[in-house]
Design goal:
The two termini are about 35 Å apart. By secondary structure, the protein is of the alpha+beta class. The chain has four domains: about 1-80, 2-Layer Sandwich (Phosphorylase Kinase, domain 1), CATH 3.30.200; about 85-155 and about 160-255, Transferase(Phosphotransferase) domain 1 (Transferase(Phosphotransferase), domain 1), CATH 1.10.510.10; about 295-450, no CATH class; about 460-525. The chain has helices spanning about 30, 35-50, 85-90, 95-115, 165-170, 175-195, 205-210, 225-230, 240-255, 260, 330-340, 385-400, 465-475; strands at about 1-10, 15-20, 60-65, 75-80, 120, 130, 135-140, 145, 295, 320, 355-360, 405-410, 415-420, 425-435, 435-445, 480-490, 500-505, 510-515, 520-525. It contains 13 helices and 19 strands. α4 (about 95-115) runs antiparallel to α6. It is globular and about 70 Å long. A nine-stranded antiparallel sheet has the order 11-15-14-13-12-16-17-18-19. The chain has a four-stranded antiparallel sheet with strand order 1-2-4-3, with helices on one face. Strands 5-8 form a two-stranded antiparallel ribbon. Keywords: ATP-binding, Kinase, Nucleotide-binding, Serine/threonine-protein kinase, Transferase.
């Protein structure tokens, strides 16, 4: 029904999103004035709905341009630059903990809308946008049902997206908050499974499946599966409340593998590694390529795992959990043993990023470390210019490469993707830890089409201390628990590389500064209160 434009506000000097309504037929008002009026009212309703909701996970409306009767209004809204959840899922399924985090953000937005008397009625991946730091933003309230307003649905018709519509809405019932929760749960199901359980070949067949067929339990959702199945029930009154759903999602986000219930269970297989397979086994339902094998229960000691607050610079990670359906247990264990050794002397996990990664059975074992003479003491704070350069020098010496695909500096270690010699896209992961030196990870992968390699010497690391002080003043994070610096890739708004200075607290409230390569701040994104 329209187009969303990226525009520049010439008065305030900022980018905005402008929603232009364009009916399927420009002559709609002439031959079907009632439909034209209904479309106009829906746009005005969306503007009013957004104006009634003040929440960081709901897109903000700045202005409405309305020419009066016979015209269609234009909406001027904040521009959310990270793409949509649908874009993210096109690259592959999410891990359960990541889906739980996204789900909590969308649920918070829905709760704010419900408190304002608004039911969204069209929760789906395309209507969830992602900020550059990964926070979800709910948008497109064009078909929202607002209490105390007239119904804008034509007699005998339903509005929404068949795949994510709650069963009660298909039967003509407007539903309520519970209907939005069904849509949210179905969206998360699709996010972790990589497929929609009730989607069929036609819209009518999909509607019939949603109305009459039971949702099959997910196979890759881990602890999230039970939560989703407690929402995807046909009776709205039997679904989890928003408060209970949020609490259970929070538990999964904080403890994605359910340590409390699994840590003391004995193994059921002999600790003798089977012969390594010649070709890794992939799950047939995985939409991502390449794939990382991650055992349910977490990675063993020495395997790189990203912190919960790590920035998502080019979209979240794409690994999936292994399913045993159609695969022999011996074959799965062989893959896990070969890719993720169960031994090793290093008990501290390294901090590599799994984004766009593939397992590499032929890679050097994860326990390999450099003995670089410039290794710093174990309690060194890495967020200083000299220490950052020490890590860069050590990684370059160990790898023989000077081109990187990613580079992140935390207070206690440095994570890098180092390009494979002779390749413009292939990389391997390394971490540098003070007191230990350089360690090669088992993760390898390829850059996305919009990414390109860089050399660390391109950046003015001398600016980091001053930028950290500026972040303390401007990012609205009073008691930061995590500080880190990331290399940020060029994008549509910033055509050059830059640095991201991130702060986050124990509540996962995060803010960041973006700078150019010289350390000049070009964008400030404070944490929401």
């Amino acid at each position: 029904m329209g187009t969303v434009w990226r525009a520049r506000d010439l008065v305030l000097h900022r980018f905005v999103a402008v929603k232009e309504v364009r009916p399927p037929d420009r002559d709609l008002a002439e031959y079907d004035p009632d439909s034209a009026r209904m479309l106009r009212e829906r746009v005005l309703r969306e503007a009013r709905a957004l104006a009634r909701i003040d929440h960081p996970n709901v897109v903000t409306i700045h202005h409405i341009v309305d020419g009066g009767e016979g015209t269609y209004p234009w909406l001027v809204m904040e521009l959310v630059a990270g793409g949509s959840l649908a874009d993210r899922l096109a690259r592959g399924p999410m891990r359960p903990a990541e889906a739980a985090r996204i789900g909590r953000g969308v649920l918070a937005a829905l709760t704010a809308a419900h408190d304002a008397g608004i039911q969204h009625r069209d929760v789906k991946p395309a209507n969830v946008l992602l900020r550059p730091d990964g926070r979800p933003v709910l948008t497109d309230f064009g078909i929202a049902a607002i209490r105390e307003t007239t119904n804008l649905t034509a007699t005998g018709s339903i509005i929404g997206t068949a795949d994510f519509m709650a069963p009660e809405r298909i039967t003509g019932n407007e539903g309520g908050a519970a209907s939005d929760l069904w849509s949210l749960a179905m969206m998360l199901y699709t996010a972790v499974e990589g497929r929609h359980p009730l989607r069929r070949g036609t819209t009518l067949a999909t509607l019939a499946a949603v109305l009459h067929e039971d949702v099959p339990p997910p196979t890759q959702a881990g602890p999230l599966g039970a939560v989703l199945m407690d929402v995807l029930v046909r009776d709205p009154a039997a679904r989890l409340s928003a408060a209970v759903l949020d609490r259970r999602l929070a538990e999964i986000e904080a403890d994605p593998i359910g340590h409390a219930s699994t840590r003391d269970e004995p193994t059921s297989y002999q600790l003798t590694p089977p012969a390594p397979p010649s070709t890794p086994t992939t799950h047939p339902g995985n939409l991502a390529s390449p794939t990382t094998f991650v055992p349910y229960g977490g990675a063993p000691a020495g395997v790189p795992t990203a912190p919960a607050t790590a920035p998502r610079r080019r979209g979240p990670a794409r690994p999936v959990l292994l399913s045993l359906s159609g695969t022999s247990l011996v074959g799965v264990l062989a893959v896990l043993w070969w890719v993720l050794p169960l031994g090793g002397n290093d008990s501290a996990g390294a901090g590599g990023s799994p984004s766009t990664a593939t397992s590499s059975p032929g890679a050097t074992p994860v326990s390999r470390k450099s003995q670089d003479s410039e290794t710093l003491s174990a309690n060194t704070d890495m967020l200083t210019p000299d220490h950052i350069r020490t890590a860069i020098k050590a990684i370059e010496k160990e790898t023989g490469g000077k081109r990187f695909g990613d580079f992140t500096v935390y207070s206690d270690y440095v994570s890098a993707e180092v390009m494979v010699n002779g390749s413009k896209v292939a990389y391997e992961t390394y971490t540098y830890r003070p007191g230990k030196g350089v360690e090669k990870g088992i993760i390898a992968g390829s850059l996305d089409s919009l990414e390109k390699p860089f050399t660390p010497e391109l950046f003015n690391w001398d600016k980091v201390p001053a930028l950290m002080k500026e972040a303390d003043k401007k990012l609205n994070v009073k008691d930061p628990e995590n500080r880190y610096v990331v290399v940020m890739m060029p994008n549509a708004f910033y055509p050059e590389f830059g640095m991201g200075i991130y702060l986050s607290d124990k509540y996962s409230r995060a803010g960041y500064l973006r700078t150019d390569t010289k350390g000049k701040v070009v964008d400030v994104n404070p944490a929401e209160n």
